[in-house]
Amino acid sequence: MGEFELIARYFKRPARRSPLGVGDDCALLAPAPGMQLAVSSDMLVEGRHFLSTVDPERLGHKALAVNLSDLAACGARPLGFMLALALPSVDEAWMQGFARGLFALADAHDCELVGGDTTRGPLNICITVFGEVPAGAALLRSGASAGEDIWVSGNLGDARLALEVFRGRYALPPAGFELARARMEAPTPRVALGRALLGVATSAIDLSDGLVGDLRHILEASGVGAEIEADVVAGCMAVLAEPEGAAALPELAFRRACALAGGDDYELAFTAPAADRDRVRRCALESNTTVTRIGWTTSAPGLRILGEGGVEIEKARFSGFDHFG
Ligand code: ADP
Ligand code: MG
C-alpha cells in the first residue's frame, strides 16, 4: 500500500467544522471571531514514550490524549489536529486499531483530523492540536498569587505504578494492574474541566512529568512558593479505590513517590483563590471530574512537601524520576 492509499484509507474523512481538511497542501481552520488559537505539539517515540507491545487502539488514543491535555490546561476548546506519522511498515491490523482509538477520542471531543505527514521510519507519532479560547482568557502558568489553593484533577501516580509493574519491580493483582495500566495507556484529557475553569482558576498546567516537577513550573512562572500535603496527594491514586489494588499497596513511601513524582498522569494542577472553593467544586461537578485540594501557594519561594503532622519531607527525594532508582 502506497502513502496516498494509506492516507485515503485511514485518515481522510470529510471535513466537518474546518473549511478544508485532509487532501490539499494546507488545511484551513476558521476560529470564531474574538477567539485566539491555542496550539500545541506532542511527540510519542517508541521505546521512550510507549512500549512496542502496546495495543494500537490505546496508542491512537494516547497520542491524541496527551495533546488534548495541553489544550485542557489552557482552557481551550479543541478544533482540529495534524498527525505526522513515521511507520516502519504498513500493518493493516495495527493501522485499523490505531485509527479506531485515535478517532474515538477525536470524535468525543469534536476535534477533527485536518492533515499531517506520513513517511517510512522508526515508529514515531507527532500530533499538533489546535483549539480556541476567548482572547486574553487562556489559563497560563503565570497567574498564581500567594495564599491561593492548589488543586489537582482526577488520579495521580497510577501510570507510574503500572510502569513499575511492567518493569518487574512491583507486583499487583490483576484487577489493580488493569486499572493502573489503563491510566498509563489511555489517559483522560480534562478538557471539560479546563474550559469550566476559565475565569475561575488563576493558573494551570497539565501533569506529564510528575506533579512536583510540573508544579514548579507554575511556581516559577508566577513567582510564588507552595506547600503541598504528601498524603493528600498519595491518596489520589485510582488503584486505592479498588479493593485488591489498595491491599497490594501498603507502603506509604512508594505511594507518595508514585503520586508526587510519577509522571504520565495527564491531570490538571491549578490554583484558585481560597474564596472560590465552591466555584471550583461546581466546575468539577459540571465537568464530571473529581478535584482534590492538595495545598496552598506561599509568598516564600520554593516548594515544601509536608508529611505527617505538617513536618516537611526532604525535597530532594521527590525532585524527579531518580527516587525510583
Ligand atoms: P505535501 O506533499 O504537500 O506535503 P503530502 O503528500 O504529504 O502533502 O500529503 C497529502 C495530504 O495528505 C495533505 O493534505 C496532508 O495534510 C495529508 N496527510 C498526510 N499524512 C497524513 C496523516 N498521517 N494524517 C492526516 N492527513 C495526512
Ligand atoms: Mg508532505
Quick summary of this structure?
By secondary structure, this protein is of the alpha+beta class. The chain has helices spanning 3-10, 56-74, 92-108, 158-166, 174-185, 191-196, 211-222, 230-234, 243-247, 252-261, 277-286, and strands spanning 35-45, 77-87, 112-120, 124-134, 148-153, 203-206, 225-229, 268-273, 291-298, 303-306, 312-313.
Give the overall shape: globular
Query: Largest sheet, order of strands side by side?
Result: 6-8-5-9-7-10-11
The radius of gyration over CA amounts to 20 Å
Helix content: 25-40%
Low-confidence segments: none
Number of helices: 11
Please give the alpha-carbon distance between the first and last residues.
44 Å
Structural class: alpha+beta
Bound small-molecule species: adenosine-5'-diphosphate, magnesium ion
Order of secondary-structure elements: HEHEHEEEHHHEHEHHHEHEEE
If you had to describe this structure to a student in words, what would you say it looks like?
With about 325 residues, the chain is of the alpha+beta class. Helices cover about 35% and strands about 25% of the residues. It has eleven helices and eleven strands. The protein has helices spanning about 5-10, 55-75, 90-110, 160-165, 175-185, 190-195, 210-220, 230-235, 245, 250-260, 275-285; strands at about 35-45, 75-85, 110-120, 125-135, 150-155, 205, 225-230, 270-275, 290-300, 305, 310-315. The chain has a seven-stranded mixed β-sheet with strand order 6-8-5-9-7-10-11, sandwiched between helices. Strands 1-4-2-3 form a four-stranded mixed β-sheet. Helix 2 packs parallel to helix 3 and helix 4 (about 160-165) crosses helix 5 (about 175-185). It is globular and about 65 Å long. The termini are far apart. Bound molecules: adenosine-5'-diphosphate and magnesium ion. Adenosine-5'-diphosphate binds near residues 22, 85 and 118.
